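Practice problem: predict the structure.
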Amino acid sequence: MKSKYAMLTNRLLFILLLTTYSGVSFAQKIKTTKDYDMSIPKGYVRLINTLIMKTGIAPTNAARIHGYASLALYEATQSGSANNQSLTKQLNGFDNPPTPKQPLLWDVVADEAFYTVSDSLFSYLYSTLANYNYIRNALDTLHRKHKINFRTKYKNALLVEESVNFGRKIANYVYQYSKSDGGFRSSMDETVALDYKHYEAPKGSSWDDNKTRARISIQPTWGKNRTFIKDIFAQTQPAQPYEFSTDPNSTFYKQAMEVYEISRKLTFEQHLIAEYWRDDATVSYTPGGHTIHILVNALEKEKADLDKFAYAYAKTSIALNDAFICCWRTKYETNCIRPITYIQGFIDPRFKATFYTPAFPEYTSGHSTQWGASAEILNSIFGNEYAFIDQTDYLRDKLVPRQFKSFDEAAQEASMSRIYAGVHFRQACEVGLEQGKRIGRIVNQLKWRK
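Answer:
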């Protein structure tokens, strides 16, 4: 009798503990990340893109923000996933992130991780935005909305608190990790001092920022930043650009003539393509943010869950971050002249490019490199023949959405758009696209799945 009484007592105690833990019923199964929809991270990603556009953040910085935000989301939720595997010791210097001691409420974890890391990544802008505090108010409003929903949804306050604490802990770990990558900026003053300045190109270089409209070079040291994938530049380093020459029979002169002739005879469709993929800072999400928007739309179309969203967002954003770093390293190692400078100097002084030429070297094309990487990642998630319509919202008021048969087709068009814009030679676009594809393949090779 004593033994039976002890067994019954233990069973009742177990049921009581399980009931307390679940906050609803002892029969309720602890949920995995596949049991939650993508609404929380989707809302934050869309908001991050809006903040990037409103604050005029450069494409490189935008890719960095998405990279660390996606890593925080992925690592915060992967313990609740039957599929996703931690990137611990797979990423460069990412060695000991926190792990939860028990199953948690993964939507609460995702919300707190995303909110905290986003707040930290944008924090250096607060001092210059104090008059309206747009960023913090926007983040706080979304976070507050989710917290109100959680109070209604969950009765176990202790479990909610533990989930919040873990999400915050992961976000803080990722943010501290980000501060050592070389791209961290503690203030706007530091950003301007480090990222927008005169750059003395090595002797013999054809690039000279004194001949640009801005008279500065943008982010000449960005290519020295730590990449997520160790030594990825060495594994994907492109060939050197064609040898500089003013000889009309040289390859370099001929590719300049191609840009010149295209610009003079630009068709309506070519001009439309150039405008569509322009993605300038302050008026767009930037090239990488545009790609992320396409990703989120595809995930929404597929009714993805939290599990798939975290996986797809991290995979794409990590590739984007490393693509921009590798591209910028190539730019400032090759220091290649831009078409407008060459054509005005050696072909036609009256030449005007379709669009403003950015103040950094020509080779390789950033649009091409980031899209090459993204296409490889998106193909791995959705397939090589995934047709889609690009419904990027900031383009809707002035341009008709474009349809694509695949991500490769979109990548090719985005790459060619820079030739139509008159800001890149063909080699920079073609080689940049291939450079990006190599980066994407390496990111695909990480052990993402358990």
